[in-house]
Amino acid sequence: MTILSSSSQAEIFSKHRAPFFTGTDYSYWKTRMTWYLQSTDLDVWDVIEDGPNFPTKLVDGFLVPKPNQEWNELDRRNFQLNAKVVFTLQCAMDRNEYNRICQCKSAKEIWRLLEITHEGTNQVKELKINLLVHNYELFSMKENETIVEMITRFTDIVNGLEALEKTYKESEKVMKILKSLLSKWNTKATAIQEAKDLTKLPMEELIRSSMTYEINLTKKLQEGEDKKKKSIALKATTKEE
User: Could you tell me the pTM of the whole model?
Assistant: First the structure.
């Protein structure tokens, strides 16, 4: 019987299971966990955004915790919502990350602690953004790189920026891809720019069209190589005769 390692188990995707965090690739986990929580219940996400409303009452001009026996239905619901998110986040952590956040009493506190730990303060966050923007601006296709490999590298940069709340318009990303292609793609890039409205061209359509062009381009190059080999073989045979 095959036994999966903890890292393998962490990569098992399920719409019923919260994404698991092992302390690495935080931006990837944060994006997936955000969507997971929002898809579960928007009230759950509000607990992280706005914080829990722990039951309190006014005593001598000061807000103090309300005794459990005085809780109403709304108090119980708010407390339970926070407990639900806290438990979900705790179950989505490995032991090291759990030890980091186990003293937190609210989901908002856990979320902010993880952000500060793995993204840094605002100053550190700004430095990370500047580095990724630099990589974005200098991005270009590598020699012998397929369009899929190129898009994967580009997506990693864009996702990293979006996790740090720096976003680009779809049209900007499309134009960036077209400008980053190698010279052998000039014909295709020009055709797309002339035939399409780049402000409305989805990235998916650009990728699909580019992949089709790449397949045809590879096929033509292969046919040219085959003809060249046949020509050399024919000359060699003629010479021998």
Answer: 0.56
